[in-house]
Amino acid sequence: MLVTPELKDKILKEFIDAGGVNLQLNIHGTAKEYCIDYEVLEIILDDFENHGFFEQMKMLGGNIRISMKVPAFDFYSHGGFVGQEELLRKNIEKLLLEIESLKPSMPDKISTITSIAGNIATALGLIITK
Question: Are 12 and 76 a contacting pair, CB within 8 Å?
Answer without folding.
Answer: yes
